[in-house]
Design goal:
By secondary structure, the protein is of the alpha/beta class. Helices cover 31% and strands 22% of the residues. The strands form 5 sheets. The chain has a 6-stranded parallel β-sheet, sandwiched between helices. It has a 5-stranded mixed β-barrel with strand order 15-16-17-19-18. Strands 7-10-11 form a 3-stranded parallel β-sheet, sandwiched between helices. The longest helix is centred in the C-terminal third of the chain and has 24 residues, at 344-367. The chain binds 5'-deoxyadenosine (5AD) and iron/sulfur cluster (SF4). 5'-deoxyadenosine (5AD) binds at residues 49-50, 156-157, 254, 256, 294, 296, 325, 327-328, 330.
Length: 432
């Protein structure tokens, strides 16, 4: 029972967790295989933030239940595992192992027992961080989780119930981890946390100071962080965009709604005016900064008027990019007790309205870079396009550029010559 396959759904943190799980199991003698058919143990790592991802993950796993008679083991890993606890076995009797993100470290020890009995690892107090990490050959970018959990209890959000309370990694451990990755060829790091700018609230450490320490690490060329909460944006954090040259000038700052009434029902703990002030300060401090956001459409009781406020706000701010989600009620959350009264069709319509006009805004925002020369972080050759490379601008935009001599993991001067809604296009030779 040594061949392991994992399929991942959801956010970057989930993908990062899966990498860590694979590294941990590989270290313990497991073979990580690319196809479920080739595995003895088939796992899904699920996200339960939105119902859609959860449904897809569970239906993926159930599509392999016919293989159980051949002795295959089916595992449900991730947030969903903790959310439904052992009730999951009642509904999905074919699942053999359930393990939440706090208990991945125990997997090597318990997986061998899974052919004899059902295993359920859902305790809150496990160890949330895995130290092993695989760095595939030629990879130059990596994620690092710096905080785990969240205690903000936004009324729609299941994360405080699935990922538990805030735990911050020590700055020295983070820096050590980054230095190890640099030895393996990594040159760009994205720091991850559910509410990353709350980093250190539990330990007395300070997020802007952590960023400064990371900026000073030799060999690192670029770094960024995800996801920030507007209520925890310190002025010193915004100044970091100006003072730390390796930090991407990019802020992902979920707005969720442009209506103060809805923001209050969401328990977001900021007003639209406070949010606008942050955007204003960020743009004054770092004029080129890119700002992206998350929006939920159809939160319980959202009227046309509330929605129009969101539309107007998005048009006023002109985000560089937006992630728009239709509200879905999640177990245990406060909003799940509210009537989910916006019809599905209306949620979809509002969702589409925003996505449609955002296309135009995103295009215009990208076009502002045309003519600029930027230090682009080179990631890899563009698929099937000779002489073309993919990289990231200093504002964390994807750049496709031509170059006679690019090397992944280096910075290269690129002149931006055109842009579409997703990419900046450029030419390296004219930038030198
Ligand atoms: N319904 C819809 N979207 C949600 N999000 C979180 N919970 C829900 C929910 N119940 C969105 C928020 C968050 C992003 C990661 O997912 O916009 O910022
Ligand atoms: Fe969920 Fe709010 Fe925490 Fe983000 S800050 S993870 S939306 S509870």
């Amino acid at each position: 029972m040594k061949r392991f396959y994992i399929k991942t759904y959801g956010c970057q943190m989930n993908f990062y967790d899966s990498e860590k799980i694979m590294a941990l199991l590989a270290k313990n003698g497991y073979d990580i295989v690319p196809r479920p058919e080739d595995a003895d143990i088939i796992a899904v790592n699920t996200c339960s933030v939105r119902k859609h991802a959860e449904n897809r993950a569970l239906s993926f796993l159930s599509s392999y239940k016919h293989l159980k008679k051949e002795g295959k083991i089916l595992c449900l890993l991730g947030c969903t595992a903790g959310l439904y606890k052992d009730a999951i076995y009642k509904k999905y009797g074919f699942i053999d192992v359930v393990c939440n993100p706090n208990n991945y470290n125990k997997l090597p020890e318990v997986l061998p027992l899974s052919s004899q009995k059902k295993i359920c690892l859902i305790e809150e107090d496990g160890s949330p961080f895995i130290s092993e990490q695989i760095v595939p050959h030629k990879q130059v970018s990596s994620f690092i989780t710096v905080t785990k959990g969240c205690e903000n209890f936004c009324s729609y959000c299941v994360v405080p119930f699935t990922r538990g309370k805030l735990i911050s990694k020590k700055p020295e451990d983070i820096c050590r981890e980054i230095k190890n990755l640099i030895e393996k060829g990594i040159r760009e790091i994205i720091l991850l946390g559910q509410n990353v700018n709350e980093y250190g609230k539990d330990t007395g450490d300070d997020f802007p100071s952590l960023l400064e320490k990371i900026n000073n690490i030799d060999g690192l060329l670029r770094f960024g962080f995800l996801t920030s909460h507007p209520k925890d944006i310190a002025d010193t954090l915004i100044l970091a965009f100006q003072s730390l040259p390796k930090l991407y000038k990019h802020l992902h700052l979920p707005l969720q709604s442009g209506s103060d009434r809805i923001l209050q029902l969401m328990n977001r703990r900021y007003s639209l005016a406070q949010y606008m002030k942050i955007i204003d300060t960020a743009r004054k401090t770092a004029p080129n900064i890119t700002i992206t956001s998350d929006i939920i459409t159809g939160f319980p009781s959202e009227t046309k008027d509330d929605f129009n406020k969101t539309v107007q706000t998005i048009k006023n701010i002109c985000f560089d990019d937006l992630f728009v989600f239709k509200y879905s009620a999640r177990p245990l959350t406060k909003s799940s007790a509210m009537e989910d009264d916006v019809p599905e069709e209306e949620k979809r319509e509002r969702h589409k309205t925003i996505l449609d006009f955002q296309e135009e805004i995103a295009l215009k925002r990208n076009q502002r870079f045309i003519g600029e020369v930027d230090n682009v972080f080179v990631i890899k050759p563009a698929h099937k396009k000779r002489g073309c490379f993919l990289g990231k601008s200093s504002t964390n935009k994807t750049v496709m550029f031509t170059s006679p001599h690019s090397r992944p993991g280096t910075l290269e001067k690129v002149t931006i010559t055109s842009a579409d809604r997703r990419y900046l296009f450029g030419d390296s030779s004219s930038g030198n």
